[in-house]
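Entry
Fold in token form

___
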Amino acid sequence: MLECAGPGQGPSPRDPRSRPRAKQTGRATTNGRARDNRGVPRGETVRVLVIEDHAEMAETVALGLRRAQMAVDVALDGPTGLDRALTNGYDVIVLDRDLPGLHGDQVCAELVTAGCRSRVLMLTAAAANEDLVDGLGLGADDYLPKPFDFPVLVARIGALARRAHPAVPPVLRHADLVVDTARRRAWRAARPLELSPKEFGVLELLAAAQGRAVPAEELLERVWDEFADPFSTAVKITVSRLRAKLGDPPLIETVPKSGYRIGG
């Protein structure tokens, strides 16, 4: 039986398959950039898999979602998308219905059979009610016809991701640290912190953990995408930069064999 990794979990057994490719096209209506991350759940970086065979559209969607502070992976056919969905713990899967190699309906059905906990947003060029009913009947959590407005896509993904995560306060506080998850800004002792997206993502996760030690592997999976090398020092370097920007007294603690946490 196929098993699916839940959001935030590591690899699980997979069933990669090889199938012939076909071709389908589609196009999203977008101004080329995400306005902001309104509607995105606070406290964690949302991890999204986009399964769309039209490469230009897939990259446009991925770029916009990354600008909305999401970690995004892309698959260009059904078999690859299914394999990645079953291997990695995504919060939301944006699934085109007309995929080469393995139809989106079958991808969705196999995800449901595998017990995948990722939320599925199905895309289609057809807008008929019967298509919507079919998609939702297969186990999709939401449905969006093409072409679509990009802010609507971001809002739909945010709504789905909120179902996968417990609610986190819009403003996280610890001692003299303030993290505004809605505006993605942070202060220490009333001093604004100039943070990169990755630095903010790490700080946000640590603050939301409320003193729990967060493993480096979890930080890498939640803040970076699949192209991050699991043996890289990206997390260590980012935490080091964060510590320098946070200043004294030290706020981020290293917990041996456990990870990092907000202390003090």
About this structure: The two ends are 46 Å apart (CA to CA).
